[in-house]
Design goal:
alpha/beta; about 375 residues
Length: about 375
């Protein structure tokens, strides 16, 4: 199936069962427990079979490095030694963050609205990259301060922008649960539409601040290790941003022992919550999920804290230039194939990886084996 066919099939399913029509789960923990109960550990036998297949391909052992690992993760997630990287789909979640009132961004919330228009119209950076990668793109409003007037936006916003985390909680816990439900619902509809690989992107001014706060809360790392320049802060702006995150953590009294949903409600954002939900929903439907940058990895870590079995379904794409990126990847036990200094978000890093996955699978499926070449296979060196 082509990207436009996935988008059309998703659209039909969304109209039949929109996220606010009962398909996104209830605002309680029972629904979340039911979702996580559907997530089974990734298939270790399929992973081992894929690793053995790589060893039989006529090339030096491990010569494609992390791309070989990524194919093995696809195999484990899909439960087959014959994995695929397509059809694939990206859901981009839009939400605004009240913390922008603290002056932590050089842009205002009107930029979220502009970006939404661009992605709906197919002119955003990620839209251009997705066309090259033949990846479906589905925009979802889970909490924009001002709704976008475009029929191509899929709207299910539990609230219209979060509160200022420097003054108190971002939102109630049940609002986070509803946003997680939206993400999981979108993942399920995309899987039902035919997507075999999923990815999540985001857009919301101020979300590098919320993600830094969540990353600090989940890992115990100081804001100096998680707060970066985002879209381009000055040194003075960076210092202010760190101080805001420190204040948010103190005011909301969150730490590494806190429940992940509570952390998202205290200092997170609805885009992060929805991405968390998409990763949970992807695993529940047997789909691997390709991560994006630092905000995506923050959401993935929250999802893994909710359902540890999820970790076997995640594929890293790139290591963002934001300071928390490597910390989060280490927490997830992942290595990113791309070290490109990217920090755009929207899902662009995930789109950059997809053609590489295609090429790795072409080698995996089509390259000559040692037996076919009449060669002795390479052996592991002790």
């Amino acid at each position: 199936m082509r990207a436009d066919e996935i988008e059309s099939a998703f659209e039909n399913r969304w109209r039949a069962c929109p996220a606010d029509g009962g398909g996104a789960g209830a605002a309680d923990d029972a629904w979340l427990r039911a979702l996580t109960a559907r997530i089974r550990p990734a298939d270790a036998q399929a992973r081992a079979a894929a690793r053995s297949h790589w060893a039989a391909v006529a090339k030096p052992l491990g010569a494609l490095g992390l791309l070989e690992d990524a194919v093995c993760t696809l195999a484990a997630a899909q439960g087959t030694p014959h994995p695929v990287s397509a059809p694939r789909a990206l859901a981009v979640f839009f939400a605004d963050n009240g913390v922008v009132a603290e002056g932590i961004s050089q842009s205002g919330q009107e930029v979220t609205l502009t970006a939404a228009h661009n992605i709906c119209g197919g002119t955003a950076s990620v839209s251009c990259m997705a066309r090259v990668a033949d990846c479906a793109v589905v925009p979802v409003d889970v909490g924009m301060a001002e709704p976008v007037d475009d029929a191509r936006m899929h709207v299910c916003a539990p609230m219209r922008g979060t509160a200022d985390i420097a003054l108190g909680p971002a939102c109630p816990r049940d609002t986070v649960l509803r946003a997680i439900g939206v993400g999981a619902h979108v993942a399920g509809l995309l899987a039902d539409a035919g997507a075999r690989v999923l990815a999540a992107g985001e857009m919301g001014i101020g979300n590098t601040t919320t993600s830094a706060a969540v990353a600090s809360a989940l890992t115990g790392a100081a804001p100096e290790l998680t707060v970066g320049r985002g879209a381009g802060l000055t040194s003075e702006g960076l210092a202010r941003k760190r101080a805001v995150v420190e204040r948010a953590l103190r005011v909301n009294q969150v730490d590494a022992c806190a429940d992940a949903v509570d952390v998202l409600a205290a200092v997170g954002g609805l885009d992060i919550a929805a991405m968390c939900g998409l990763y949970l929903g992807a695993a529940a439907h047997g789909c691997p999920a390709v991560l994006d940058g630092v905000i995506s990895c923050t959401a993935a870590l929250a999802a893994v804290r909710v359902a540890p079995e999820l970790s076997g379904y995640l594929v890293a794409s790139h290591c963002s230039s934001e300071p928390a990126a490597r910390l989060l990847l280490d927490e997830l036990g992942l290595c990113a194939p791309l070290q490109a200094g990217m920090h755009l978000g929207e899902g662009t890093g995930a789109m950059a990886l997809l053609p590489l996955l295609d090429m790795a699978l072409a080698v995996y499926d089509e390259a000559a084996s040692f037996d076919a070449c009449g060669m002795d296979a390479y052996r592991e060196l002790s």
